[in-house]
Amino acid sequence: MRRALAVVAVAAAVGCIGVIAPARVAGQITVEVPVPSAKVLPHTRAERSGYLETSTFADVNAFIDSLRLAELPYTLGLLGRSPEGRWLSYVVASRPAVAGPEEARRLGRPIVYVQANIHAGEVEGKEALLALVRDLLADPKPNVLDSIVLIALPIYNTDGNEKFAPQAVNRSEQNGPEMVGQRPNGQGLDLNRDYVKAEAPETRASLALLARWDPDLLVDLHTTDGSFHGYALTYAPPLAPVGIAGAFVRDSLLPVLRQRMRTRDGFETFDYGNFDVEDAGYRGGVAGADRAPGDTAVHAWETYDHRPRYGVNYVGVRGRAAILSEAFSHDPFERRVKSTYAFVRELLSLAAERRASLKRVARAGATGPKPGTMLAVRARMTHSPYRGPVIVEDMERMADSTVLTQPGVPRGMRRTGHYRTVQLDVYDRFDPEYSVPVPAAYAIPADRDDVVRALRMHGVVVQRLVAPVKASVTAFTVDSIVHARRTFQGHNETTLHGRWLAPRTSTLAAGSYVVPTAQALGALAVYLLEPESDDGFVTWNTLDGILHDGAEFPIVRLPVMPKVSRRAVP
Ligand SMILES: [Zn+2]
After folding, report:
1. pLDDT reported for residue 347
2. Ligand 1 centroid distance, CA of 329 (Å)
3. 392 Cα: distance to centroid of ligand 1 (angstroms)
């Protein structure tokens, strides 16, 4: 009786609807002894519904609240507000609990930031992360929370999450649940293309979080978009060939995770990719290997994109480790939650083990790229793939091209459940396409405070001259300006071509801004400011109004840091 009352009380307090699993309740509440507080562990909406439903924004908040009611210690953080006014909350979990980044740093542990639901129809990360936080906090035995600080953000795109619609509409390539949110945020922006231009409040808030907490590892949880392969989950390191974070994650973390996912968790995983064929909109190996040479056979498995507009790549350019996680969209929802749960749990453990290496990666970039070294501001998929095994699922065409055989499978197609391992060219990395010598600094004209604001939003340190300074400058002459025809995320991306002139002595006016590259975000500053960068301020039209053929680019390189008096650097 006492037990029943306790359950009812908690269910009401956290606004739960649905059933709290009796076995769980029985395990938590002692019948004979009166309980002063009801330590009932919450269940996610996915768990409560038998994996038929995913959590609403209110469900997520109620779940987090109920962790506190269950007397599990954590710190609640508020990242910021969405365009529609929803708070983005995150849980900081560690033992002992930490109140903020200073306390976290004093522990000297890796800080791991895991975010889910940036594409709000891709829902298993949200469910897996909530369940994992609960299980780790409630675990009476020592666990990874004794060795790391976990920042868990279960629902990054809160507005998108609330735009529930049938999965056939919002996530046509996914196998459930039936109702899911949409990909864009409340402004219609794809948040995983926004990390450079930072137009969304969510992005701005997350840049502030990166500055404040400086996580050693970021993990971004997604679902794949359609290729029929044989992996429960695919992953990617930072792909921009800048700094050492990407190679560290690719060569030191991911192979270990792959091995552990196979042997400890029973999930096959691999590098994120898609087959190099498109067949009636279907991305996958439709009997590809059986086609005649010269036909549209599958030859390659290709990763996605290196540009820092994507969160994981962006964090890599900031000099920190990051991992993209992509659960297999054709697995049932429950299996996707479980593979994502296992992957995150494994990588938290690995981060604890590799604490020294993660700190070494962070230290390597602490003073910025060395002036004179080459830094890639454009990249292309490698021309040297390796030949290796990739698991393909055979697909079958139905006689009736309109029949739907499984949610997420194109009409007229059927999964056979027959998997084959084929040898493909695996493109898992990008190589530099165009690199620039890192200058000591950049100078920005006094009236371009829009550029300065943008740099500071990213956390780049910008100085201002209060008096004119003579300096050696290298300027760029614009030969051509190309605006993309296609509008993408509200922009027609700009590409510049031109020439760098010989250095000359020039006077930088009072009020000009100087951006030294000898700073923690020096590489990022180069990527954002270089005129021929493939994902910088030029790309996103910040400077469109003042670019002219034959004219000089307004931002110049300074080969040597000018002598700026202390007084002149407020
Ligand atoms: Zn996604």
Report:
1. 98
2. 10
3. 21
